[in-house]
Amino acid sequence: MKYSKLRFVAPLLCMATSGIAQYTAQILPTSTGQGWALGAGGNQIVGTDFAGSLLWTGPDYDYVHLGADGFDSWGLEGVGGGKQIGTGRLNDRSHALMWSGSTGSLVDLHPNGYLSTFGRATDGISQVGDRAVLQGGNISHALLWRDTPESVVDLHPDGYQSSIAYGVWGDTQVGMVDNQPVVWSGTAESMVLLPLPKGALGGAQAIHADEIVGSSSGTALRWDANTLEMASLGPGIAVDTNGKQQVGSGQAHAVVWSGTAESRLDLGQFLPGVFIESRATGIDENGTIVGWGIDSEFAFRPLVWTPVPEPGSLTAFAIGLTVVGLLRHRWGRAECLLHRISRF
Fold first, then answer.
1. DSSP label at 29?
2. 223, β-bridge pairs
């Protein structure tokens, strides 16, 4: 039988590029040995331990505590563009807070005259969150800032009771209005409802580039930010996206999707040691995933999953490149080599 060159090269190249995503997972260092990682972006991770708020920086994940002088307590929730956002507590009132990598960089985003404000997310240029309308109540208004308290914009649309903004990317903000997922473009009047299955309730949690993610009634969802077309990721809760992959949790396990329900990958299988529960809370532009887990000693551990090529695909890729090189010079010898390989 006469073998064509194309028949040999194509299968090898397919093997080289068809590997399934794999990850290495590790526990992030903290001053107490425990904690939670809550967000990732721009080679930074934010979270907390029992000693305070933490900022980790890759690739070695060195960390610093971000303080908030003058506040009774505080916590971090989001990170992006070299800035970190969260909420501080002062005299029974909450204040949205922003840092730029150090305690001394703290900016209090709380405008004069507001009861309580909460910082949820930042892309490094804008910040979003919400404010309490009634002290001690559950009615809130979504807010948008651009680095200062004076820049605040109330995104709450007329005719609705309560709203929260959870994500921001450029000129677009996403969140929830009266248990419906929504998208804004910088003003209350620009609000648009995102589609949901008929009769369902839900919310949008994050946006990156052209993708929005959220959940409805135990189903993880993604929307195209341009067309607003909805797609189901299957059972679970999606909380963050890097524009290509989506992360969240399902059945007490951290999970990652790559745009479809069929692509769902259980991140619990990569954890170091025995964990009885895990959650993915953020993903950065490079696909690094962060979250937390509860180990067999019931301790909370901050976690990071780093994507790596599947070992099998690396081997296939190396073989493919070797064979292609041989084909350029001596097809006859390459053909013999392929015959030998096919015997195993």
1. P
2. 212, 230
The amino acid sitting at 335 is E
CA 145 to chain centre: 21
Domain 20-308 in CATH 3.40.1190.10? The answer is no
Owner of token pair 């109330």: 154
* Residues facing 49 on adjacent strands: 52
Between 49-58, 140-149, 193-202, 324-333, the lowest mean confidence (pLDDT) is in 324-333
Q: How far is CA 73 from the centre of its chain?
A: 25
* Segment (H or E) for 225: none
Residues 6 or more apart in contact with residue 339 via CB below 8 angstroms: none
Locate CATH 2.120.10.30 in the chain.
20-308
Please name the residue that has the structure tokens 């979270």.
47
- What pLDDT does 311 receive? 62
Reading the block at residue 11, the tokens are 């299968």
Alpha helices in 219-276 (DSSP H): none
Q: Confidence band (pLDDT; 50, 70, 90) for 20?
A: low
140-145 and 117-122: which strand pairing? unpaired
pLDDT digits (tens, 9 = 90+) for 228-238: 999 999 999 99
Residue 255 φ then ψ, to 5°: -135, 160
pLDDT in tens, 129-164: 999 998 767 899 999 999 999 999 999 999 999 999
76, two tokens? 């971090």
Closest CA to 28 of 272, 305, 304: 304
Element (H, E) at 3: none
